[in-house]
């Protein structure tokens, strides 16, 4: 009877062991983690139930808690699921004059992020690299540098002259946006563009024009012929007509005391209404009739207020500066803040600054 009882006990123990062994499966080597690596080298092909592996952060990442996984019946389980290694912060990548930057990789200025810099219109990249990467030891490369594009000097055409130019010495390089206007002397007229502009890519918008002699076509006389032509140089260029000016006007003394059209070389004065300025950023401006149109073009531009305030930042400008449509301005955010749009430049438009500056707290700042 005793032997039979012992037999039952042995069978029960064997059944328990087999069941436990079947329930406690081994684990294969844990999968590779992008931000963490095992503290000790793992050479085993399998790991028993209950095995615990501790991890450390890979270079560029930090942790605030122990990171462990445990084999549980053939599956690796994270003992602290909400505790992971996080990327080291590199801080703000740095602003560049005449350029803006954009975050093209990553969610913030942390390890693995990349920002690329783009030069403003009319500028070119001088630095070898136009990007910075957030690495374990901080930002790579130096802050990229941009320089304004330049156009080669222009020569005065034969029998012509430079009516208006941005440079006193025409043998100097011209900057993006500079305009040169040509005129002809005596009985010569322009062939080609009378105005050329230094474009944003550093090339002239058109070739330098030529001055060709003005000739008049003799009238056809029915049943007759022309025996001679007297004073052939008396051909006159067509003048400049009166033009309305949006957001400005030509005062009465110019409109009525000096009738239109204006002839070559004659001038008009015009002024802009409140909130608008001429291209010279003054209320009043003078234009000259050249080659049948006014130079500069009588036009009034909307102004933008650079003293306008916004939260946690300021415009980089002196009080005497004036800004009109097409002008750009840079701004700086206070310490602990950065631009919400990842750029530090705004443009003056008919509707004001665009985009309007907005500074937000840096990640981690309360």
Automatic annotation (TrEMBL):
Return the SUPFAM superfamilies for the record: Complement control module/SCR domain
Q: Where are the transmembrane segments?
A: none
Q: Which segments constitute the Sushi domain?
A: 25-87, 88-148, 149-213, 302-361
An annotated GO cellular component of this protein is: extracellular space
Name the record gives this protein: Complement factor H-like
Q: Where is the signal peptide?
A: 1-22
Which cysteines in this chain are paired by disulphide bridges?
Answer: 119-146, 184-211
Q: Does the keyword Cell cycle apply?
A: no
Keyword terms, alphabetized: Disulfide bond, Signal, Sushi
Asked whether the UniProt record includes Kinase among its keywords, one would answer no
- MF (Gene Ontology): complement component C3b binding
Task: Please give the PROSITE patterns that the UniProt record associates with this protein.
Answer: SUSHI
A GO BP entry: complement activation
